Amino acid sequence: MRDVAVSTDSIRLGQFLKLAGAVDIGSDVRSLLEDGRVTVNGEAEDRRGRQLVRGDVVAVDGTEVRVG
């Protein structure tokens, strides 16, 4: 698992997926969420605007990234 540093106290899931390199463009986030390929802290997530805080673990297709 790798950590991705954020400069604020929280970040939206869609923004974090772009920052972490999980998607190239923001419109790709929607299809990942609709297909059920994203989990946050082990639970399926379908909200692009979900607020993440440091320590949250996001997984896309099994690859985990922690908000740092």
UniProtKB/TrEMBL annotation:
Cross-referenced SUPFAM superfamilies: Alpha-L RNA-binding motif
Coiled-coil intervals, chain numbering: none
Gene3D superfamilies membership: RNA-binding S4 domain
Record carries keyword RNA-binding: yes
Pfam families linked to this entry: S4_2
InterPro entries the record matches: S4_RNA-bd_sf (IPR036986)
Keywords, comma-separated and alphabetical: RNA-binding
Protein name: RNA-binding S4 domain-containing protein
Organism: Prauserella alba
Lineage: Bacteria, Bacillati, Actinomycetota, Actinomycetes, Pseudonocardiales
